[in-house]
Amino acid sequence: MEVTLLGTGDTTGTPTPGCDCDTCSEARDRGVERSRFSVHVRNEETGESLLIDASPDFRHQFLARDVPLPDELLVTHVHFDHLDGLGNAYRLFDSLPVHAADERDPETGESVAETVRSKFDYLDRITVHDRTPLSAFSACGFDVTLVPVDHPPLLCYGVVVEGNGAKLAVTGDTSYAIPEASREALADADLLLADAIVPASLCEYHPAGGRHRDEDGVPRTFGHKHATREGALSLADELGAEETRLVHVSHFYPADEAFEEPLTVDGERYLL
Ligand SMILES: [Zn+2]
Ligand SMILES: [Zn+2]
Ligand SMILES: [Zn+2]
User: Fold this and answer.
1) Which residues surround ligand 2, an ion (CB under 5 A)?
2) Which one of the ligands is nearest to 255 CA?
3) pTM of the full predicted structure?
């Protein structure tokens, strides 16, 4: 399993357009980028590629990285930074299966699969497959499972990809409060990609503050929707991953922390 991190940033990316903060400036100086979230997973045995999330930076990502266009796509949730890049599929594919959850979201009144189907009804080359969370399905020769996470107010899913003796776990956009059944599914991966949007020290600037504090009072959730760096690292300990990398990273990290391990930048590649 060959995993390429196409997009490791949050919804504005780093550098953020028009931003001259120290972190965005440092990214420009280093020549690195954190574009909107997407992970490319290639099955070296079948030659097929599964794409996790359709980043609005899709075109740029596939021009910048030496990876083939995907054979199948999975969408974790309907936020702009994970879904809206699907418009890039127009005229690029003869056919593109898209996998998404079948649970009805009380917030939108439809499942992720239904939203994808209605929002991109002009794409006659895509076929949306309704997938039941916590039930494995086959994609690109892998066993793939959507696992419910905690990203209020929307339903959102992490992803487990297994095959060729390897296991990849992706938390998706989530607070620290991932339900137990999902934790079991995400456990013991060779590589865990965990949402870590900011360091815990920034919770004091969020109107909702921090939640899910550890025994030292450090918040593991930033506001309601995302894990802090500290929360992601706690989760990694609990899930027992062989290796953990932090993704969905924002430019709000102080510049002297923003490029430290295990935070990722675009283009990193892992062979599992
Ligand atoms: Zn900035
Ligand atoms: Zn989101
Ligand atoms: Zn996001």
Assistant:
1) 79, 173
2) 1
3) 0.98
